[in-house]
Write the structure tokens for this entry.
Amino acid sequence: MAGALINVPERAKRGEVIEIKTLVSHPMETGYRRTQLGAPIPRDIIRLFVCAYNGTEVFRAELHPAIAANPFIVFSTIAIESGTLTFHWTGDNGFSVTESAALTVV
Amino acid sequence: MDEASSRREFLRVIGAAAAGAVSLVAVEPARATPAAMQQAIAQVAGAARVNPGRVKLELPPLSENGNLVPLAVSVESPMTAADHVRAIHVFTEKNPQPEVASFRFGPRAGRASVATRIRLADTQSVTAIAELSDGSFWSATAAVVVTLAACLEDA
């Protein structure tokens, strides 16, 4: 259900700035909508996204209901050493997804 | 005489009803206003002055679907430990909540640029604020015309 797609180049030159694209499936229910009977639909969003590179945080995003469903975030980092990038999404109702990607620096 | 007074009475009643309808419309939408956006910006920037410039905010001038509006923000910066962009905050004028997102960078980010997709509840302007490591704040604003509003209608 909670799938995440990550696009990271497999290898990069040392010092190169690489672009990372992430997409996670999530409805991002705003909490401002109502059902046809008028009952409010409770908020259910991803609040935080963190990317760490070999354990060091390189990027963080705090999200609000104005982020579209299935949050898509593109950012960048400097390829310093070979290792793993870990991606972590956390949100309402105990939502938590962790993904990782390997990067080889030549 | 009698007829004139009943006409006056009729107009008075109609006028009161119209005034009531107007105030009802004015009260109903719980939306962020430009003032709420200024307040949200002040919460981020504190007492610091927000200067226009340095931030590049890319948004389509016309969006057919407010549920999915592509947004890209970038700031020209060397991104070194001494001089980098600490954060980019995005705000809207007329969404139910002025905050959209806060992106936090460090010198390890390499480039101060981020792209995502946002929701817009109405035709309005979007403001991006960049927070630099020297404590200064810079901003850019873009206006978007939205045909199908988010939040109110289903995609």
Q: What stands out?
A: The interface with chain B takes residues 17-18, 30, 32-33, 53, 56-69, 71-78, 80 of chain A (CB under 8 Å). The radius of gyration of chain A is 16 Å. The beta strands of chain A are 4-7, 11-12, 17-24, 46-53, 56-63, 72-78, 83-91, 96-105. The mean pLDDT of chain A is 92.
